[in-house]
UniProtKB/TrEMBL annotation:
NCBIfam families: acyl_WS_DGAT (TIGR02946). Residues 465-475 have a biased composition (Basic and acidic residues). It comes from Blastococcus mobilis. Pathway: Lipid metabolism; Glycerolipid metabolism; triacylglycerol biosynthesis. GO terms for molecular function: diacylglycerol O-acyltransferase activity. InterPro entries: Acyl_transf_WS/DGAT, CAT-like_dom_sf, O-acyltransferase_WSD1-like, O-acyltransferase_WSD1_C, O-acyltransferase_WSD1_N. Residues 463-493 are annotated as: Disordered. Its EC number is 2.3.1.20. The lineage of its organism: Bacteria, Bacillati, Actinomycetota, Actinomycetes, Geodermatophilales. Belongs to the long-chain O-acyltransferase family. GO terms for biological process: biological process involved in interaction with host; glycerol metabolic process; response to hypoxia; response to nitric oxide; triglyceride biosynthetic process. The keyword Metal-binding does not apply. This is Diacylglycerol O-acyltransferase. It catalyses: an acyl-CoA + a 1,2-diacyl-sn-glycerol = a triacyl-sn-glycerol + CoA.
Amino acid sequence: MDRMSALDAGFFYAESENTPMHVGSVAGFEGPAPTYGDLVRLLLSKLPLVPRYRQRVRPVPMQLGRPMWVDDPHFQILYHVRHTAVPSPGSDEQLRNLAGRVLGQRLDMAKPLWELWLVEGLADNRWAIISKVHHCMVDGIAGTDLMQLMFDLTPDATHDEPQDWTPRRNPSDLSLVAGALTENMTHPLQQLMSMPNVGGAVRAAKGVAQSSRTLAQTVPSLARQAVTPTARSLNGPIGPHRRWAWTEGKFEEFKAVRRALGGTVNDVVLTAISTGFRDLLERRGELSSDRLVVRTLVPVSVRRADERGSLNNQISAVFVDLPVGQADPVARLTAVRGQMDEHKRALQAVDARSIISMGDFVAPTLLSLGVRATLQAGQMWCQAVTTNVPGPRVPLYVLGKRMCSATAYVPIAGGTRCSIGIFSYLNTMTFGINADFDGYPDVDVLSGGIRRGIEELLAVATKDAAPEAARKAEPESEPGSRTAKKTTTAAAR
C-alpha cells in the first residue's frame, strides 16, 4: 500500500469529464496478429513486474491525506485487455480514427487505471496495440522503461507461465484516516531533516537566495514573456471529444539540420513544430505580428538514472516561445535554441527535484481544490504542451512480431487545447497531436505543417552544406601549378 506523491495526486485530481488525464500510444506491428488469448496470457505473466497494474486508487476520507494505491480485490484482466478490428484492409486513416475515439474516452477511475486494445484488420498483414495509462500512475520516461512489461528484444523470446495472485487486504477507512493524520504530522519534519547540504535555516535561506539569483540571470523573465504577443485564440474551453493526427520524420533529417545549422535535435523538433503552428495561424488569418509566439509547456525529466522504471512522476517543465511570427526558418531555429540553452543552464543550477518535492507539504484538500480550480478556470499563459520521449533504438517484439511504428498520446487540460507527443523508435520520430474537437477542426493543417517544417529546414541545411561538400571534393593542386594559377586568377576577378 503506497501513498501518491503530491505531483501524482495533482494529475489524479485533474481528471474530469472533459479532461481525461491518461497518456497513451499506438504501436503498429508486422505479420499476422496474435490471438487475444495469447496476448492476455503474456500480460498475466508480466504483471508481477509492475504491481501497480493490479492496484486502484483509494481516496482518503474527507481528503485528509493524499490518495493511496491498494490492491484491487476484483481485478479482472479481461476488462483491461480489449479486442477490436477495423474493416479489412484497414488504412492508417482508419486506425487513426479508431485510436482517436479509444484514447479520447475516460478510464474507469474505480479500477486499475490502464487499458490495452488489440486491433486487427490492417492492410499489408499488420496489426496494432492501443495502450492507455493514467498520468498519475506513470510519466513518459518511466512509461518507456515499462515496455519490458510486454516487449521483447528478440522474436524468439520465451515467457513464464502466469502465476496465481492473491490481493492484499484493503485498509479500512478508519485506518486510512489515522495513517494520513500521522503522516501529515511526521512527514514534513522527516523531509526537512533529510534535506541534503542544509545545516540550518540560515544556510537554507542562503541557498534559496542563490537559486533565485541564478534563475533571474538564466531563465527568460516572466515579465518579458508577459508582454510578448501570444496566439491566445488557440486557448479556450475543452470539450469531451478529441481530434488526433500524426506525422513523422527520420532521424537523419533532424541530424542533417543540426550538423548544418547548429543546436540539438530537440531544438530542430521544436522549430518544425513552430512551422506547423505558423501554417495553422496563417490559414486561419491570425498571423497578426512578426513577434507573435505560441507558448508551449515542455516537460523535463528530473529522474535519476537509478530511478528509471519507478512508477511515479519525476518531471519539471519549462515554457518555450515558438516564434511563429518569424518568416525565416533559420531565425526560428536560432530563437528556439537560445531559449533552450537558457533553460538548460537554469535546470543545472537549480535543484528541480527539491522544488517538485515541496508539493508534499501542501495539504491534500488544498491540493485537490487548487488543481481543479486552475483547470476549471482555464489559463491563457501557454497554448500547447510539447513533450519529447526518447524511445528504444533497437527493434522490439511482441509474441514474435516486430514493432514497426509507435506514436504517443499526451492529454490536454486547463484551456490548453493541443498537445504534441514526440516519440522516437529506431530511425523514426513520430508526432502525435491530440487536440480538442471543436477547437481544432483543422488539426491536419498543423500535422502537415510540422512535416513541411522538417522539409523546409532540411532544404536550407542541404543548400548550405552543398558548397562545403563541393569545396572538400575539389582536388588539391601543387603550389605553382597551372590549376593553382587559374584558381588564383579567378578569385582575383
